């Protein structure tokens, strides 16, 4: 189950899915050890090292797509919530942040949270968001 950090990003995803979904507002309540935060470079690098080590003993995960690696790690580490930053270069950027060739603010990056299956207990205060 995927969650977005703001209504604009939720609307972006809904349009991308041709409107075949509803937007629900909620709070996620969890213990920090149940979060796998891939927005943190150091965490991502440690998880890649772990995948390399596990690939020597287990199956070869190095060539898997990121989603498969994340699912594998979440199961092994008993993770309830995964946080990533998705790059959507085709999404409409705001003229407030002009595109330049070096590091800059942008609306093309989207923070995405994924509650792993079987962990709906961390989803609280659900409320359907009305269409505008």
Can you describe this structure?
- Helix content is 29%, strand content 23%.
- With 132 residues, it is α+β, with helices and mostly antiparallel strands.
- It is globular.
Q: What is this entry, summarized?
A:
With 132 residues, the chain is α+β, with helices and mostly antiparallel strands. The chain has helices at residues 7-16, 41-57, 66-76; strands at residues 2-4, 24-28, 35-37, 81-87, 109-115, 123-128.
Strand and helix layout:
Blueprint: E1 2-4, H1 7-16, E2 24-28, E3 35-37, H2 41-57, H3 66-76, E4 81-87, E5 109-115, E6 123-128
Parallel strand pairs: 3-4
Antiparallel strand pairs: 1-5, 2-6, 4-5
User: Any low-confidence stretches, pLDDT <50, length ≥5?
Assistant: none
Total E-strand runs: 6
What is the approximate shape?
globular
N to C succession of SSEs: EHEEHHEEE
Strand content: 15-25%
Amount of helix: 25-40%
- Which sheet architecture does the biggest sheet show? 4 strands, mixed
Structural class: alpha+beta
Distance between the termini: 23 Å
Largest beta sheet: what is the strand line-up? 1-5-4-3
Mean pLDDT over all positions: 86
Report the C-alpha radius of gyration, rounded: 17 Å
Instruction: Supply the number of helical segments.
Output: 3
